[in-house]
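#help-structures

NK: newbie question. if I give both the sequence and a SMILES, will the prediction place the ligand too? trying with thiamine diphosphate
OV: yes, paste both and it writes out the complex. here, I ran yours:
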Amino acid sequence: MSEQIALTGNEALALAMKQINPDVVAAYPITPQTEVVQLFSQFVADGVVDTEFVTVESEHSAMSATVGASAGGARAMTATSANGLALMWEIVYIAASTRLPIVMPVVNRALSGPINIHCDHSDAMGARDSGWLQLFGENAQAAYDNVIQALRIAEHRDVMLPVMVNMDGFIISHAVENIKPLADQDIRDFIGEYQPAYSLLDPDQTTTYGPLDLQDFYFEHKRQQVDGLEHALEVVLDIGREFYQLTGRDYGYFEKYRLDDAEIALIGLASTMGTAREAVNNLRKEGIKAGLINLRLFRPFPVQALREALQDIKVLGVMDRADTFSLNGGPLFGEIRNTLFDFGNKLKIVNYIYGLGGRDINLSDLEGIFRQLLEVKENGKVKQLVNYYGVRE
Amino acid sequence: MVKLKDLTKNKGLLSGGHRLCQGCGASVIVHQALQVVENPVVIAVATGCLEVSTTIYPFTAWRTSFIHNAFENAASTLSGVETAYRSLKKQGKLAADYNFIAFGGDGGTYDIGFQALSGAMERGHRLLYICYDNGAYMNTGIQRSSATPWGANTTTSPVGKVIPGKKQYRKELTEIIAAHNVPYVAQASPYHWKDFSRKVKKALEVAGPSFINVLSVCPRGWRTAENKGMEITKIAVETNVWPLYEIEDGEYHITYKPKKARPVIEWLKPQGRFKHLFAEANTGMVEQIQQHVNRRWQKLLKLSGQAQ
Ligand SMILES: Cc1ncc(C[n+]2csc(CCOP(=O)(O)OP(=O)(O)O)c2C)c(N)n1
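OV: that's the protein plus ligand as structure tokens.
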């Protein structure tokens, strides 16, 4: 283990990528991810990594070249945000169906339009059905740790799927935090030498990637992707345990905070949950039994574990930093309701769609939301199921 | 140099039994190109006729490593594979030498894949991109592309009561790629197979990106007889509709000059897609095509330092 150092979220991501020392990185700049690409270019220019960097002309080509490199037996990475991820979209699906263990940090930013550079999760949520695993982290440390673990999860032979590591744009990417990076050698030992399952560059056998797959096999191949995701549920925990032994930092599907005796709780993703933790502390001081779930794994969705964690909660607030435009709540809300529908508990659920385009959410906002949940608990009634929180209407 | 005798004996890297149409130019082009490849080769193919007909799971006609990613990204995908190769080589993780060849139709090359191709050429990957130019999106049913010739009848530039086929001249992609300052660019035809295979060999020898644009007959799209493909491909060259030339480090060089250029009508006449040009209402269109071909040829002569 090395000492604590002060880094921005983007610097932490770039450091993780440097320590992983991938064979190939193909990436294109976009705010707020840009710094990652710049820092990594400098590592390449200074010869501190073995990586060949492909300065592609677009994100579509970034993902295409990353797919090509990965199919060529390289450990290959890219990184993006918002519109960049949207431009990749076609190939994001292909990366998953081709079972390539690519790791991609996504520095979350509101998806156009209107154009905006600040944080929300509309970019990641647009790719939620692409077949990638999606990890979220609250801060720079979590993003750094998630990138390292993502590599092991992706490359696990029972998984063989790409992993998106999400980190909040600006709020985390551009803010300085103390983080504890691992020593280079620890990371090398943790991730090991990459052994590709099938490589285009295997001199002993030719390999075919991406054939036309018609009515008689496509469905089986999609089902196999689901299989990989089912295995991922176990692998995420196994790798988390291994990482814990190395670092003492605990990662599973989600973090439970003061949940055991809680009556009201919030579930959400990323940096907001750090603020929510403070709100819980403040409410607890007043004797209000509040708790929270800080969800790390959004894809696959840890249904069983969430059912267990939420079994004694009376009122749950679901925090969505993205909308589905279904008029039926945000993406996390949909998952949670689906998870709990036939579970038979009497839990009341309220959805808060908040923070779009970087709209700030602060401690008193979150305390206020908890107080609304408390009201629901006391009245037994949900006044409004889906709430647009913090917007002028 | 490849000999005809070897060509007939060598079973080649693309096996028979693929599902391309009878008389399709694409498989002939692939055969001829791969004849001169000496190293193991990784092939990338853009979505299109060639791809959907040669790798239908669980089969493949390719005796090579092969990747198809999507329609517009054969160049960027292969640039990723080539980069993996350089990285693994540099780190001592791979010993063998490889070649990298992408194939794309004109749609996947001139149009939707243009940006990815331009990027790959500019970045300098050591790969050869071969466009089999059949002058339309054939796989989806003969829609016009920016390679479709002026006046041609396609399903999205149909001959109608007021519009007589495609209204734009084709884009000169070969020259556009040359403007990327890549070491080797050429235009070829499978009828002139020796010329073509020599160009492929040269392309693979340069230490950078290379591009060859090859005329590829499509009997369905051109409305031509299956057994007339090579003849028509030959006429394209003899009429200067499809000149054979190469651009080495920016120097233009015409590799075959017809003794006396034949009139374009000989190229147009056997093709159903140009049938309407001979209708009374369209008098003058053939002449306009002739003028365009003449202008293009004069320009090429000038570029190769042979202006009269
Ligand atoms: C992004 C995208 N847009 C459209 C298509 C549909 N499509 C598949 S092949 C093709 C045309 C291919 O034309 P070309 O590149 O000229 O090759 P050819 O079929 O003539 O061999 C089209 C439009 C697609 N697969 N992907």
